[in-house]
Amino acid sequence: MAILEDIQSIYAEAENVLNSVANEEELDNQKNLFIGKKGKLTNILKVMGSLSVEEKKTLGKEANETQKKIEELVQNVRTKLKNEFYEVTLKQEFFDVLKPVKLSDKRGSIHPVSQIQAEVEAIFTSLGFSIMDGPEVETDENNFEALNFTGDHPARDTQDTFYTTDGKLLRTHTSAIQVRALRNLKPPFRIIAPGRVFRYEEVDASHETTFYQVEGMVVGKDISIAHLIYTMETLLSEIFKEKVKTRLRPGYFPFVEPGFELDIQCLVCKGKGCSVCKHSGWLELLPCGLVHPQVLEYGGLDSKEWTGFAFGLGLDRLVMMRYGIHDIRYLHSGNLRFLKQFPA
Ligand code: DAH
Questions:
Q1: Over its length of 344 residues, how does the chain's per-residue pLDDT go in tens digits?
Q2: Which of 52, 129, 281, 298 is most solvent-facing, going by the fewest CB within 10 Å?
Q3: Which helix (H) or strand (E) holds 131?
Q4: How far apart are alpha carbons 55 and 3 in whole angstroms?
Q5: CA 233 to centroid of ligand 1, rounded, Å
Q6: How many CB atoms lie within 10 A of CB 263?
Q7: Which candidate, 183, 180, 175, 167, places its Cα nearest to that of 143?
Q8: From the CA of 278, how far away is ligand 1's center (Å)?
């Protein structure tokens, strides 16, 4: 039977062709040439109408089996192609995630002011303080009025101010956050408030128009100067990693009474006198004081019931002291050769 032989030779041909395709797309195309709608095997079945019943049976069976065998063949070839594909691409795309890499020296690092801010925050949170925030654009009331710089109080001149066109100002100190704390928190409370502040200043080695402070405020019953000194000495000993001696001198700020300048004994000469402390043995470090009763009242508290202390820490200054940097402008220069010296 010629047709039977045709069917058998179709299979032989299919085996040959399908086994040598290069990819799945070719496989699908070639498959259609044999068992697709217009494929060779399908075409043969179309002429079976003219055959005897007996012949139809034999050929039908043979054709069905061949169709199945070709489908199986296609399936096997497909699996083989898939495996090959994965093997090749996996090899090409493999990279060793555990391989040690050469670290680039162009990595960024945390700015020294931010580093010291994080340290100060950690020390104070360990002492039970919470961290508070406030806006850089403030009201005159929060920055001055409620801190007892009333009307055209002469102390306003000590803080040259940038004003906005809508009657606000860029806060000149983080003390503005004291007012927010007094109005929003229920005493007793302990807060620190780090932030950026602005002054309309002539820029030189020790003055910048933008710098960073941390405000501190404790309000409670019977708060005294002893609490203030203890807190400051704890902070400074942690920051400078050695026991630090302090002294208080009177200082004037309208929102504290009494107000102080807190000095630390020079870390370089231990008080003997050297060029760093200009031979005085002391370094001026931070202003502080007991919260003025008027400020407590402005903040909505009864000054007969509540007392407090406050301090203002200059972060830039602290960085400069720790590393012996003599010009504040380095800190804001964005100079990578400078910043690279403080990796973290
Ligand atoms: N706000 C003051 C300034 O920037 C510093 C200051 C002084 C803050 C005394 C205080 C303080 O909390 O008690 O010049």
A1: 678 888 888 999 999 999 999 999 999 999 999 898 888 888 887 777 778 888 888 888 888 899 999 999 999 999 999 999 888 888 888 888 898 888 776 778 899 999 999 999 999 999 999 999 999 999 999 999 999 998 888 888 888 999 999 999 999 999 999 999 999 999 999 999 999 999 998 999 888 999 999 999 999 999 999 999 999 999 999 998 888 899 999 999 999 999 999 999 888 788 998 877 889 999 888 999 999 999 999 999 999 999 999 999 999 989 988 888 889 999 999 998 999 899 87
A2: 52
A3: strand 130-131
A4: 10
A5: 17
A6: 19
A7: 175
A8: 24
Helices 225-240 & 315-323 angle (0-180, nearest 10) = 50
Range of the domain at 65: 2-92
- Domain co-membership, 158 together with 32: no
Tell me the pTM: 0.69
CATH number at residue 331: 3.30.930.10
CA of 120 to the centre of ligand 1 (A): 17
Residues 199 and 303 in one domain: yes
Q: Which amino acid is present at 203? A: V
User: Does residue 308 sit in the same domain as residue 209?
Assistant: yes
Task: Give domain status of residue 98, yes or no.
Answer: no
- Return the best residue to mutate from 190, 285, 311, 318 for the ligand 1 pocket (most ligand atoms within 8 A of CB): 311
